[in-house]
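Below is one record:
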Amino acid sequence: MVVAVVVGMLTLAQYAGVPVMVPAEAHHAFTAEFDANAPIRLEGKVVRVEWVNPHTWIHLEVQEADGTSRVWMVEGGTPNVLARRGFRRGCLPIGTELVVDGYQA
């Protein structure tokens, strides 16, 4: 099963190839953190989920064009915000195919 996630804002800052995702109602100004001219799509498998405050983290292993893989970190909303939207710890089991659309930082 492939799960598609479309977010209004997505910070993709790399720490050894790792990005970050932020929900649209975040307290940070979009233009201060994101480049609207740098959209990105990540397609890969969930390798880790951190259900922690202040933001949740989804670690996504993406296969690069050259055959190597890179793990990106996608930053989400707080666990409370996600819970109000129906997401729960364990909603994205390891190995889940995920598509994330967003903007790079």
Summary: The longest helix spans residues 79-84. The radius of gyration is 13 Å.
